Amino acid sequence: MNRPLLLEQLQRHEGLRLKPYLDTAEPPRQTIGYGRNLDDRGITEEEAGFMLDNDIDEVIADLERMPLYLSLDDTRQVVLANMCFNLGLTRFLEFRRMLAALADRDWDRAADEMLDSKWARQVGDRADELADLMRRGEAR
User: Fold this and answer.
1) What's the confidence (pLDDT) of residue 139?
2) Residues 70-93: what's their mean pLDDT?
3) What is the average per-residue pLDDT within 48-75?
4) Tens-digit pLDDT profile for residues 15-49
């Protein structure tokens, strides 16, 4: 089998779509990439892990542009990266009072600001765990 020929044809015939879209089948199915049917096939655990690693790299690259982030210990950097991953950078940066508390090295106030948010009410135990890590600065 001529795999390079097949690859070239599929790339050309399917087209690359980097965001999910509905294909032309009846009924329409969620599709991504070069015709990957997400409804029927989904993704593998390995593919999900690969995407997670890439997303983590992107979050860290965004945060490393912040001197405040770089000044924190590893555990508190993890807390911010977790929040940023969940919220996206734009919404994360709206936590101005938390960021101000971090600049003051006031870990308790930073944790309180995390918990006093719509985000904390939405994510529940995740926020409690991250606020606890913020206060202590070390994982158990």
Assistant:
1) 78
2) 97
3) 97
4) 999 999 998 888 999 999 999 999 999 999 999 99
- Return residue ranges of the chain for CATH 1.10.530.40: 45-136
Query: Would you give the distance in Å from CA 56 to the centre of its chain?
Result: 6
Q: Which residue's entry shows tokens 């309180």? A: 112
Q: What is the helix, strand, coil percentage profile of the chain, to 5?
A: 65, 10, 30
Of all residues in the chain, the percent with pLDDT exceeding 90 is 94
CATH class of the structural domain 45-136 = mainly alpha
CB-based contacts of 80: which residues, under 8 Å, 6+ apart?
63, 69, 72, 92
Regarding pTM above 0.85, the answer is yes
Q: How would you classify residue 85: left for phi > 0, otherwise alpha for psi between -120 and 50, otherwise beta? A: alpha
CA-to-CA distance for 76 and 140, rounded, in angstroms? 13
DSSP reduced 3-state for 22: strand
**Contacts (Cβ under 8 Å, ≥6 apart) of 76:** 102, 107, 133, 134, 137
Give me the sheet containing 30-33, strands edge to edge: 17-22, 30-33, 36-37
Place of tokens 């009072």: 97
